[in-house]
C-alpha cells in the first residue's frame, strides 16, 4: 500500500510539472527526427558532385562514336542505394571559379574536370597506341569529410570505365588538387572549427538557467521593484555570457594549439564570428527561460535547442544539403536558418583555407542577421513574460 502511495504522490507531482515529463518523453523521438534530417530526409545521404566536362566525342576506327565524358557522367548518376535513392547529385558546370567557391562554401563535395582529349586519348589507347594517356582532375577541400567519400566514388567510376574499354590497368591518371592548406591538415585539425562553435553552443545552458534562477528564487521580482529595465537586465546578462564565451574560445584555442592545431587565417576574424554566434545562443537561452519556472525546467528544455544546434549545424557531423531556394546565387537549405551553420562554414574557411574578411562576407552577414533575429525574439518574449 505504501508503494502505491508513493506512486500516486509522484504521479500528482508529475502533473504539476508536466513540461519536464513531456519533454523527457519526447527527447528520443527528437533525435530520431534529427537523424532523419541528417540523412537527407530519405534515409540515404547523397553527395554533391560538380563536373566540368570539356571532353569532345570522337569517331573510332569501327565508325562508332566514343563520348567517354558523357559515359562517366551517366555512370555517376546511376550510382544509387538499394532503395533507389541517388548516391551522388551530379551537376554540370562551365564555371571553374564558381565551382571552387561552392567547394569553399561546402555547398559541394568535389569538382571533377574531364579534359578535351579524354575520348581521343582513350580511343587511341584502345587502338593500340599504348603511349596515349589522359587524366581527370579532382579538386576539393580535403578537410571536408564528404570530399573523401564523394571523390572515391567518382574516381572508382572513372577508373572502372577506362579499364573496361581499354583492358589496361591504369590508362587514366587521377590527379588530386587540394584547396588551400587542406592537404596538410591532420584529422585532429579538421574537427577544431566545429568544436569552436560547440564551445559557444553549450553556453545555452547558462543562458537559460541564469534568468531561470532569478525567476525561481524571486530575485527578478525584487529587481523589478527597483525599476530595472529589460535592456539593463538582459544587457548585463548578455555582456557576462559573451565574456564567458570568448574566454571559452581562448581556452579552446590554446588547448588546440598545444596539441598541434594551426590556423591559416586571422584569429581576430574567428573571434568575431564566435562573438556574433554567441548572441544567437543567448537569444535561444532567453526563449527557453521564458517557458521555465525553475532552473531544473530550464535545464531540461534547453536540451532540445541544444540538440538542433549541435547536430544540424555541422559543428559535430557534416550534413547533406537539400536546398530550398537560391539567394544571391547561393543555395539555402533548412539548416541555414540556424545561425551556427554559417559560423561553422566561416571558421572552416578561416582556419583551413586562410580566408580573410572579404571571403566570409556572406557568412558574416547571414550570421549577424539571424543572430539579431534570435536575440530579438528572446528579448521580446522575456520582456512580455517576465518583466511585466
Radius of gyration: 27 Å
| Sheet having the most strands | 5 strands, mixed
Percent of residues in helices comes to 55-70%
| Count of DSSP strands | 9
Our estimate of the beta-strand percent is 5-15%
Structural class: alpha/beta
Unreliable parts: none
Order of helices and strands: HHEEEHEHEHEHEHHHHHHEEHH
Question: How would you describe this protein?
Answer:
- The radius of gyration is 27 Å and the shape is elongated.
- Strands 4-1-5-6-7 form a 5-stranded mixed beta sheet, sandwiched between helices. The protein has a two-stranded antiparallel ribbon with strand order 2-3.
- Helices cover 60% and strands 11% of the residues.
- It has 2 domains: 47-184, abc type-2 transporter like fold (3-Layer(aba) Sandwich); 186-386, no CATH class.
- It has helices spanning 2-16, 18-38, 68-78, 96-104, 118-126, 145-166, 187-201, 204-216, 219-225, 230-258, 267-290, 295-311, 339-353, 361-386; strands at residues 47-53, 58-59, 65-66, 88-92, 110-114, 134-140, 172-178, 323-327, 330-333.
- It is built from 14 helices and 9 strands.
- With 388 residues, the protein is of the alpha/beta class.
